[in-house]
Specification:
About 25% of the residues lie in helices and about 20% in strands. The protein is built from 9 helices and 17 strands. It has helices at about 1-15, 50-70, 95-100, 100-115, 125-130, 195-200, 210-230, 265-270, 295-300, and strands spanning about 20, 40-45, 70-80, 120-125, 155-160, 165-170, 170, 180, 190-195, 235, 275-280, 285-290, 310-315, 340-345, 350-355, 360-365, 370-380. Helix 8 links the parallel strand 10 and strand 11. The strands form 3 sheets. Strands 1-14-12-13-11-10-9-5-6 form a 9-stranded mixed sheet, with no helix packed on it. It has a 6-stranded mixed sheet with strand order 4-3-2-15-16-17, covered by helices on one side.
Length: about 400
C-alpha cells in the first residue's frame, strides 16, 4: 500500500507539481505603509519557461501600479543572469538564452522600466562566473541583455534618498581602497551589492582566480569604507541568502547557502549589525523571515548584534514545485536552521517597500488560478538584541520552546 501511494504521488508530481506554502496568502493586494517611498522588486531564478511568462506579465502590472503611487522603484537581479537553461547546467550564449520567448517577455518588461527612467541593478552569481569567467563591470556586452540592468562593479553601493532617484555612491580602485560619497540627508536607504560567489562557490571561479581575488579584496575594502561612513539604513543584496529554510539551506538536501559560507568580512559586518536586512537568491523558492537571528545562532552559534530580516527570491521561472522537486517539500530534505514566516515553492518574486519607520516584505506567488500575495511588516530602526536573553531551540528542533537565559526567573 505504501509503495502504491509513493508511486501515485511521484506520477502526480511529474505531471502537475505541487506547492507548499507557509503564512496567510490572499488574492487581494497586500497592505503596505501609505508612507512608503521606495519599492524594491527582487528577481531570481531566471531560466525561462511558462512560469517566466506569467511572472513577466505580473511584474509589468506591478511596476505600473508602483510607479503610479510615486514611489522610487528599483529592480534587483539576484544572480545567474541568463547564462544557462537551468542552474548549474550547460553554459549557453546569452543571446540564445534571452532569445527565448519567455525570457524575451521578461526582457521587454525590464527595458520598458529602465527606458522610462527606472533603476535596475544586478549582482552576479555562480553561473555568471562559471559561464562568463568574470564578475564583469558596466553594461552587459551581449545585445540580448543590454539595458536590462546596471552592474558598475563586482561590489557597489546604491543610495536612495527621499524624493530622488537611486544612484551608485561607491568607487573602488583596483587593489586599493573604496570611497563612499557622503549623504546629504540622514533618511536615505543604501543597498549594498556584494558578490559572494568567489568565496562561497570557489568551484565556479577556479579558472579565474585573479579576478576572484580582486573581487574579494574589493568587497573587504567596501565594507571598511561603510564602517567609516555615516550610519544609514543598509540592506544587503547578494546572489545567495544569509540563511534559508529551503533545500539549499543549512542541513538541506542541497545545502549550499548559510551564514558560515559567507566571506569573513561580510560575516563580521552582519554580526556587528551593519544591515537591517538581507535580500538573496539561489534557493529556488520564495521566503520571508522577519528576523533571521535565531537561524544564524542555530547554524553558526553566532549571536548577531541586531535583528536581520531575510528575503529569498529565486523562483521567477523554476520553483521547487516543478515536477519531481515536489519531493523536496519533505521536512527532512529542507534546511534545519530557518523557519520562515512566509514561504512558498510556487513561482513568483519578492517586493520590499520602505517607509521612514517600517519595511513591508511582500511575496507574490502564482496560485492555482490567480496571483496571491502575503506580507510581513517589520519596524526600522530595530532595537538591538539584549546582552543576555533566551536561547533559541537548536537544530533539528526548529519549533521547540526557546531555552530561558540562565539568570532569568523562568530558569529557577
Amino acid at each position: 500500500m505504501n509503495t502504491f501511494i509513493l508511486v501515485a504521488c511521484t506520477i502526480l508530481a511529474l505531471g502537475t507539481g505541487c506547492v507548499a506554502h507557509r503564512g496567510h496568502w490572499s488574492s487581494s493586494p497586500a497592505t503596505v505603509s501609505e508612507h512608503a517611498t521606495v519599492s524594491l522588486v527582487a528577481l531570481g531564478g531566471l531560466f525561462g519557461g511558462r512560469h517566466m511568462r506569467r511572472t513577466a506579465a505580473e511584474l509589468a502590472g506591478l511596476l505600473q501600479r508602483e510607479k503610479a503611487t510615486g514611489r522610487t522603484v528599483v529592480l534587483l537581479w539576484l544572480g545567474d543572469l541568463g547564462r544557462a537553461h537551468r542552474r548549474g547546467g550547460r553554459c549557453r550564449p546569452p543571446d540564445q538564452i534571452w532569445g527565448r520567448s519567455s525570457m524575451g517577455q521578461m526582457a521587454a518588461v525590464a527595458r520598458q522600466h529602465t527606458s522610462s527612467g527606472g533603476a535596475s541593478y544586478a549582482v552576479h552569481g555562480r553561473d555568471d562566473w562559471r559561464c562568463s569567467g568574470t564578475s564583469g563591470t558596466g553594461e552587459p556586452e551581449d545585445e540580448a541583455s543590454r539595458g536590462l540592468w546596471h552592474h558598475p562593479a563586482a561590489n557597489f553601493v546604491v543610495r536612495i534618498e527621499s524624493g530622488e532617484r537611486a544612484a551608485v555612491v561607491s568607487a573602488c580602485s583596483t587593489w586599493g581602497p573604496c570611497v563612499i560619497e557622503p549623504s546629504r540627508t540622514s533618511a536615505g536607504t543604501e543597498l549594498v551589492f556584494l558578490d559572494v560567489t568567489p568565496w562561497s562557490y570557489p568551484e565556479a571561479v577556479s579558472a579565474h582566480k585573479d579576478a576572484a581575488a580582486a573581487s574579494l579584496h574589493e568587497q573587504a575594502q567596501l565594507l571598511l569604507a561603510l564602517d567609516r561612513a555615516a550610519p544609514a539604513t543598509r540592506i544587503l543584496v547578494s546572489s545567495a541568502a544569509v540563511e534559508s529554510g529551503g533545500t539549499h539551506g543549512s542541513g538541506g538536501i542541497r545545502a549550499s547557502v548559510g551564514y558560515r559560507r559567507l566571506p569573513l568580512p561580510l560575516r563580521r559586518a552582519i554580526a556587528r549589525g551593519m544591515f537591517v536586512g538581507a535580500i538573496g537568491g539561489h534557493d529556488p523558492a520564495l521566503q520571508v523571515a522577519a528576523d533571521a537571528s535565531d537561524a544564524i545562532r542555530r547554524a553558526s552559534r553566532i549571536w548577531i548584534h541586531a535583528p536581520l530580516f531575510q528575503v529569498v527570491s529565486a523562483a521567477a521561472s523554476r520553483p521547487e514545485s516543478n515536477g519531481i522537486r515536489m519531493l523536496d517539500r519533505l521536512p527532512r530534505r529542507r534546511g534545519v536552521t530557518l523557519a520562515p514566516d512566509l514561504a512558498t515553492t510556487a513561482a513568483g518574486f519578492a517586493r520590499i517597500t520602505l517607509s521612514p519607520t517600517t519595511v513591508d516584505l511582500v511575496l507574490h506567488r502564482r496560485g492555482a488560478w490567480s496571483w496571491q500575495q502575503a506580507a510581513v511588516r517589520v519596524p526600522i530602526p530595530r532595537p538591538v538584541h539584549p546582552t543576555e536573553g533566551p536561547a533559541p531551540a537548536m537544530a533539528p528542533c526548529l519549533r521547540c520552546e526557546p531555552r530561558p537565559s540562565p539568570n532569568s526567573t523562568e530558569a529557577e
